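Following the same procedure, the fold was encoded as tokens, giving this record:
***
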Amino acid sequence: MAASKSATVDRAQNLDFVQACSFSKLRDRLPLRWPTPPGVPPSPKRTYRSHYVYLGCRDLQDLQAWEHLSDFDLILRLIDFSGLRPILAQRLGWTSGRGWIPFDPVSMFLFHGWLTTNRWKRAQALKNLADPRYADYRERFGFEEGVYPTEGGVRHFLTALGHHSESAGDAIRIELDDEPAVEVAIQYLNQLLVGAVQLIRQADLFSPEAWARALVCPDGMLHDAASHLRCAAVQGSCYQPTSPQTPRPCPAKEKEQQGCDCDTLACADACRYATPRDAEARFVYYSGSNQPRHSPNRPQDESKEKKGGGRKCYGYRSLSLLLADPGRRFHVPLLQDFQAANSREEIPATAILLQLEHFYPDLRLDTVVGDAGFGFNVFLRTIHKLEARRVVDLRAHETDKDKRQWPVRGYDNRGRPICPFGYAFTANGFDAKRQRYKWFCGKDCQRDVEPVVRLEGTLYPPPECAYQAENLPHGKILNVGECFPDGSLRLVRDVPVGSPAWKALYHRARNASEGRNATYEYWGLKRMPVYGLCRTKALSFLADTWSILTTLARLVREATFADTS
């Protein structure tokens, strides 16, 4: 068997990609201009302590220079960020031109990208900004020599961005089964991701089908807080003041753990085992497996599955919706949400899907892929309402183990229909127009096929089956839409689980998720280097934005080198 080509080699041999995305084809369209959404007012500030101006890309005419330029260097030359200024001003909460004179928000945005992509500490990045060796970067950022932000100013930039991300008060209402409805705040820092994705489109980096038949997958990632864990049971009540008259409840003691009596002066304002600088951080033990339910490497007996392979995390969870381009084998995050580590994933993931129409009105959703953590009714139902295919790994239930119940309920533990006599149906394709999958029995009972479940006291082949007539050549035909006939949709999928098509789609989604994990790991953002929900949220959104931009630069570089070889 021939080894599969790497994504880089595959793209280099893709003539359409090379012709559309190389520097020689982009030259007349440069710079790529950051789009400003309609309705965003100009920045109320008229003067700044720095001022970003696009300085051109003349040095890119020399192809030898590409060998020495990093992806970040290419970004500064390929993109004019001027259109980002009013967006950042709005997200920073600026409503008046009065008051202090700030640094240009574009300068601060570029400085953060420089810091992140080089994996520098904040103090080291500020030191380098003043170093004569980096005068060219200082000039492209728009900083004047000797006039630089302080560490406090850099922290404030992140705090303001995170605080105003949801300050508009807009929310998506999610209706749940047997639970009160939940409102999920719309994060307007997603405007940064949307702008970066639009630049990818300006450069024609997406294959035509990637946008017309979008394959998306939610990716939840745990991030350790900058504060270290002291008590795993910490909750919001641990940050409330306590007194002898109104003692603070201890969630650890409620779990029959040692906990804290909170009877010392150190516990007056907040429990001494809490982490005030990361008050929204929570503890979670992630015991999930990267092995999907249909993997041949999973043991048949789940009790024998390897224990101790989970991960303890005290911190936060970022949830990004990734768009995978199977044709050109890369991915970008479309939207994101950011919450405490112990938050449920399926609810914000549902809210993100419902926001796609607002942020990407011309995106045609085709398939949503996810792991078993998203296999809840609210998420599956939303995918169906958006007229997309559900390729979400199965969320197991105790009832799935009892094979005797499969013919009664009408489907097995993997969502495959089962007839009342225990025979499995055969898949016959997905009808996208009617949003349903067609199955037929094929009269297996008359072809000496062994039933999946053999019923006691039943004669085989069953003479009482009503679908054995000659005028029914395919036997019983079953159309499965949003749910099974019994009303359940937990195991309903629009691609047969374990089929080659399922595996191909799931593999592409897993590659995208692992790619995002690798980027965060490389940039040192699995443990957050800043304190507090506002700063960590802003940093995560900025990281996803720079992930998109570095992908743009990397792909243009690949196309350019392939075009000259």
About this structure: The two ends are 28 Å apart (CA to CA). The CA atoms of residues 110 and 224 lie 25 Å apart. The mean pLDDT is 93. The chain has 17 helices and 13 strands.
